[in-house]
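Researcher: Can you fold this with zinc ion in place?
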Amino acid sequence: MSEETSFCPKCGSARVDTSSLIGGVCTCRGCGWQGGSAELHKYQYDTGLLAGADAVTRFSMELRLLVAKDMSAAFGKFLVKWGFLPDKGIDVAVWGRYMNAIARAAAVAIVQTRDEIESEDKNGQ
Ligand SMILES: [Zn+2]
């Protein structure tokens, strides 16, 4: 069986309690969103396929997972240091929105940079 991760369609958090029942309610532990499992953004590792999202979204979701798993503590410290998050009592929904924004902005920047590199190659630079 393939491994699948579901992301909240509202805040992008991977901390979603999913219901395996058809028509069951899924709840995001980040922002409190509730909805059907069909509304979730799903990423399947074996195929790299994602339902209901474009390529940049798919790319940023994988990056989002990377940020959540490997870099969230470092980014959290950074945001606290610069005053974007409070030292104590961090709102997980706000924190999740920052992590989502970081992943999406990084994904867009990576794609744009590749475009720039490819256009430089074409121009013989
Ligand atoms: Zn959410």
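Model: Folded with zinc ion in place. The CA atoms of residues 77 and 85 lie 9 Å apart.
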